[in-house]
Design goal:
mainly alpha; 4 helices; elongated
Length: 92
């Protein structure tokens, strides 16, 4: 199997991040694509030089998705509703 070039790897990763962003409303599809993103990230690291300026933008997009998925999981947790109902619960 031919090793993909840096350009192909960046394009594939960018497309996959775009699909991930569009799948936010479907939790099952989002979870599946998130696994694919992690696999593709491993492939990307192998072929793209760390000094490539495109990585900064991809890093930002990946961080946005990481924050979204963490917050989404936090809000969907059964504990999230229970904590709000406690009289002593406070953010401060």
């Amino acid at each position: 199997m031919k090793k993909p070039s840096a350009d192909e790897a960046v394009e594939a990763f960018t497309a996959l991040l775009g699909e991930l962003k569009l799948a936010r409303s479907d939790a099952a599809r989002y979870a599946g694509l998130a696994g694919d993103v992690m696999e593709q990230l491993g492939a990307l690291v192998e072929v793209v030089d760390a000094s490539d300026p495109r990585l900064a933008g991809l890093n930002d997009e990946l961080l946005y998705e990481l924050v979204y998925s963490a917050k989404s999981a936090e809000l969907r947790s059964p504990v999230a509703g229970a904590v709000k109902d406690l009289p002593s619960a406070s953010k401060y």
